[in-house]
Amino acid sequence: MQNKRLSFGELKLISDMSGVPYDTLRATNNGVRNNMRARVAIDVYLDSKAGLTKKIIAELRDI
């Protein structure tokens, strides 16, 4: 899992999309708990966010 502190809004979004409870995501993100479903949900979110950022940068270079 990538070590990055996520905001309340990001954790709430991940919770809504994945079905993993917000408290579990928060505890996993803060390193208090190590829940596999929460880790996977956070990793998928961060990977998709990184991919979207790369796509936006590539499109901006074309302008």
TrEMBL record:
Name under which the protein is recorded: Uncharacterized protein
Domain of life according to the entry: Bacteria
